Amino acid sequence: MNDPSPIDSPSSSAAARESAAAGPGPAPPVSDRGRFRRSLGGVALIALAALALAVWQWHDTRGQLGELRQELARRLADADSQAKASRLVAEQAREATTEAQVKIGVLENKIAESQSQQIALEALYQELSRNRDEWGYAEIEQSLLIASQQLQLAGNVKAALIALQNADMRLQRMERPQLTALRKTLNRDMERLKALPHVDTVGISIRLDNLIATVDRLPLAMEVRPPAQVAADNKDESNVWTRLAREAWTELRQLVRIQHMDKPDVPLLAPQQSFFLRENLKLRLIGARLALLGRDEASYKADLQAAREWLERYYDTRNNSVIHATSVLRNLHSSEISIEVPDISATLDAVRNLRPARERGTR
User: Fold this and answer.
1) Under a CB-based contact definition with an 8 Å cutoff, are residues 337 and 292 in contact?
2) Rounded to an integer, what distance in angstroms lies between the CA atom of residue 7 and that of residue 29?
């Protein structure tokens, strides 16, 4: 279907021919309204794009701001908790510092006190070190004096030996060459004491105490009765008169007893005399013990001899207890309690003579 076009009109064809004959020319001008509309459409598109971009940026910025706000709030909360913890730690540190300062003050006071005590101790030590030899010599002299007293007064060899050993140990700790001669003298005295016979004073005293305790139980000779005669069995009981005569004779024999006495002079003592006999025997044994402690051998043996004689005279010598007591007294009487103790006064004088020599040496 071919519709007529306005280009095919005569005027149009004439114009076209003229245009073709004249050659190409300038384009026909566009109207101002069209250009304005096209410009307005482009501006609107740009504005819409810019608005969309701004909205998108605003929305993105708002999200970022929200995240930043949340992060800032979290960090502020953390900072607040850390600040609280820091304040607590600071408070604890302040308290610890205060307590430490108090302790430091106490320690300083104690250090100052200990320093003063140390100074005092040093002064005392210096004083003691200056007098150490004097103290040592004084102790040695005292030990020798005790040993001399034990030997001369009590005859106690063991105590004297211990005192000499202590003095020798003191001299050994001093380590002075000038004390060699004194140590030799001490060792010679100790050897002399060790060579002495041993007297068991404690054992003898215990045996005497046991004898004293048994005195009251020892039977006197006058208290001993002859044994009763045992009547013979009467087998002939058929005769009544014979039996009666035998019983009468037995009763008559019980009235008088005849006994063979080894010692016909058995003393008869009243009850009061028996009491005093036992007490005097105890006193004799106690006197023997005192003489033992005093190293008085004469009195010791005299008391034991008297006690043994009284036992043999007044007591039943067939009794086992009396026999044992007599044997103990005999053994104790044969014991030697007196020994000749050596004289250590020369050693004591030698120690005392060291004092003037030391005084001259210090001058």
Assistant:
1) yes
2) 19
- Residue 109 is assigned to a structural domain of this protein: yes
Q: Provide the 10 A C-beta neighbour count for residue 277.
A: 18
Alpha-carbon span 153 to 340, nearest angstrom = 12
The whole-number pLDDT of residue 282 equals 93
Question: Does 67 fall in a domain?
Answer: yes
Of 113, 141, 93, the C-alpha closest to 350 is: 141
The pLDDT of residue 4? 41
Q: What is residue 359's predicted lDDT score, i.e. its pLDDT?
A: 54
- Verify that 188 and 310 share a domain, yes or no: no
Other CB atoms within 10 A of residue 288 CB: 28
Inter-helix orientation angle 180-194/157-174, to 10°: 160
Q: Is residue 283 part of a domain?
A: yes
Q: Are residues 204 and 318 in the same domain?
A: yes
Domain carrying residue 182: 52-194
pLDDT tens digit sequence for 331-354: 998 887 777 777 788 888 888 777
Long-range contacts of 277-281 (CB under 8 A, 24+ apart): 277/220, 277/310, 277/314, 278/215, 278/216, 280/310, 281/215, 281/307, 281/310, 281/311
309 and 208 within one domain: yes
Max Cα distance, the chain (Å): 227
Q: Which range (154-163, 210-219, 354-363) has the least confidence?
A: 354-363
28: left (phi over 0), alpha (psi -120 to 50) or beta: beta
Give the SS3 label for residue 102: helix
In this structure, the answer to whether residues 185 and 278 fall within a common structural domain is: no
Q: Is 187 helix (H, G, I), strand (E, B) or coil?
A: helix
Q: Tens digit of pLDDT for each residue in 240-253? A: 778 788 888 877 77
**Whole-number pLDDT of residue 12:** 42
Kindly state the average pLDDT of the residues 156-172.
84
